[in-house]
Write a structure and sequence with these properties.
Length: about 240
Amino acid sequence: KKYCTSVVIAIAMEHEAAPFVEHLKLEKEDNFFSPKAPFVAYSGKYEKCNITVITNGKDEVHGTGAENVGTVPAALAVFMALDKLPETDLLINAGTCGGFRRMGAEIGDTFLTTAVANHDRRIPIPQPDYTTYGVGKIESLKVEKLAESINAKMGVCTTGNSLDKTDEDDHHMKANEASVKDMEAAAIGWACELHETPHFGIKVVTDIVDGEHPTQDEFLANLAAAAQSLQTSLPKVI
């Protein structure tokens, strides 16, 4: 196909998705997911493309009202969405991330992923190869020309289920040659591979992982600006 006619955009947090959903005037799809699922879907058109945005919704299991961040809800939401929309041409994982200054990242930068991998699935069992399975590196769709056209940087996104990092995490993030860090991308890549759906990520840096400030403080301070940046970048990407 010369053009994508059906695109799913997976965004973990409602706060990240809201400006883009409002900008494209997407409509909420109340019956898209199973009633038991906490996930949320919005749909509409942008130029010739059918757009579906999915978010992970809020925590109902523990009753906290927190956003369902992390690999488990991300993988399940994407798997269910691609089951629902088997003709999907492309899945884009959009959201915020931490960036590594050692790899040239700065707050506000937009990155397109070259690959995704895990840094906290450490399974040192040689036979069968659980180490490779644990890292779970998956190549992204090649989008070098796209990166040039929107003035984005490119790099590997490393995924783990904690906002902070340990020294052991850092060792594995370096081994992954990661430019950015998030809590969903590798899980989303895995779900896409099961459906044989092309995929890549677009990530806006909210905090510097190897910087001097606490991650949570930088993330909260820059979340709104990063969400607005996604609202500007995503239509260009599509």
